[in-house]
Amino acid sequence: MPAFSATAPGKIILFGEHAVVYGEPALAVPVPTVQARAVVSPIIDGDSGDIQIEAPDISLSGAAADLNPDHPLRAAVNAVIGERDPGGVPACKINISSTIPSASGLGSGTAVSAAIIRAFSAFLGRRLTDEQVSQLTFEVEKIYHGTPSGIDNTVIAHHKPVYYLKGEPFSFLSILKPFSILIADSGIPGHTGEAVHHVRQKWINDPERYDQIFKSIGEISKNAMELIQTGSPAMLGSLMDENHSLLQSLEVSTPELDNLVNAARKAGALGAKLSGGGLGGIIIALIEEGEDQIAEEVTQAGAVHAMLSRVPSSQLPD
Ligand code: MEV
Question: Which residues line the pocket of ligand 1, CB cutoff 6 A?
Answer without folding.
Answer: 13, 17-18, 20-21, 148-149, 151-152, 192, 195-196, 276-277
